[in-house]
Design brief:
Two copies of one chain form a homodimer.
Chain A: E1 9-12, E2 15-16, E3 19-21, H1 25-29, E4 32-40, E5 43-44, H2 47-61, H3 68-79, E6 84-92, E7 109-116, H4 122-126, E8 129-133, H5 153-159, E9 167-173, E10 179-182, E11 186-191, E12 194-198, H6 208-220, E13 224-227, H7 231-235, E14 239-244, E15 248-255, E16 258-259, H8 264-277
Parallel strand pairs in A: 8-9, 8-15, 12-13
Antiparallel strand pairs in A: 1-2, 1-7, 4-5, 4-6, 6-7, 9-10, 11-12, 11-14, 14-15, 15-16
Amino acid sequence: MALPLIPLKVLVNGQISHKISIADRGLQYGDGLFETIAIYKESPILYELHLKRLEAGCYRLSLPLPKRETLNKEITTLCQGISRGVLKIIVTRGVSDRGYQPQPQSQSTRILSIHPWPDYPTISSEYGIRLRVCNTPLGRNSYLAGIKHLNRLEQVLARNEWIDPGISEGLMLDSQNNIISGTMSNLFIAKNGDLQTPDLSYCGVAGVMRKFILNQALALGIMAKIQPLTLVDITRAEEIFICNSLIGLWPVRSLNNIQYPLGSLTQRLRNLISAQLFCR
Amino acid sequence: MALPLIPLKVLVNGQISHKISIADRGLQYGDGLFETIAIYKESPILYELHLKRLEAGCYRLSLPLPKRETLNKEITTLCQGISRGVLKIIVTRGVSDRGYQPQPQSQSTRILSIHPWPDYPTISSEYGIRLRVCNTPLGRNSYLAGIKHLNRLEQVLARNEWIDPGISEGLMLDSQNNIISGTMSNLFIAKNGDLQTPDLSYCGVAGVMRKFILNQALALGIMAKIQPLTLVDITRAEEIFICNSLIGLWPVRSLNNIQYPLGSLTQRLRNLISAQLFCR
């Protein structure tokens, strides 16, 4: 399906606009953050978790956080009439002089845009997907790890490694061969009824759906460990799945030549996400 | 001196404009490259070396390279009447759908802007500067090393570590404690009449002025080695200097508590840069 290149609706600092200044630091240096949020029946899903991550990112980058009430108001306006869609929030350090040094008086730029729902194939969620291992590594930097900042060239290069539409996602390793995440998703493995997901202290994005799954696991009494994982751990896993805010949860059925079953823990969590987030 | 926030002249894809689409991948993911070029007497200085690096960056990112004749024409137009200034070229992967995957048919966006000359204090070049060591590390990723891409949050965070105007630059180390560069400059040390500059195979930007100095050293019979360097090497150096396309060469006179002389090799290279590039 060819999606339109221009989002459906956009507000730049509260004004209807599709443009920003070329002097914006978001363009000049990737100096900003973003959130990609599912909209269902006019509401942003997992909104509090998204805002919490945005807040953490602003704190880490010393970026002025947009006022909660301003965001709420603009999001309510944008989501009106959207039964299913995607809300993207970008917050940058705004317009500045040339040069890396942030200006103390800088005003952040906020860009809120509504995009069509991607219409992922049902088979990805129900049957599962094929995963590959990417060559592009993730650089390790604890100063940038976990937050969803605008420096995403590593993901772009990794996603550009394959065009086979039968492969839905690529696994990214850090420069020390730890498994970190997919290009656009987080990863869980299951073994003996427990969950494990990669430690993101040095790279990767701490996904909101990952957080939701960790919270649910806690509530359900499922042991879930955040820890360093390698390709050997993946090879020995009983179940694998990936997740993000839009896809929810997709079972992984193959990684290179290894096949994985559609396991019971994976199905349980997938059904729980559907029921709790997308079936009200 | 307060510089204007908006550049003096801008061409976006050849048209006079100060704006780009919010759907441009340069903003969305930092998916692009840039060059910062000194203009002297209406000419871009070290233009061939800049274009060569831009070309290498486009190749690495699989980005369509703007046509040389188009760039030449636009740069000639923009530089008219500029006796001293800064030309910035940004090339992005252009507007696309949401999602990391580049579109095969994507058209790049080129943004050429003219900025006022920064008027650096004469003392920086003549007497030298104070350098500090930054805490923000550089992540190691050979896929992104050397090229001047738009993912510059590491430099932004490092430059935000100090506000003391008496400190002109910060030294950045990679996650394995190798010295790589300044936040906006490359670094050389001199010992026994030889030059050494950090290996940039895993991070850092391969500066155009660094390349010019390496070329000059070769022509003058000065031994210049590209190699891994640590803080210990710096401590034992006889001379240190930093360089970039705008500052030329600045001698480093202190790093934390260590003082360095204004050495003869540093002065020779500084004078050579002035004579060859900025005194025609």
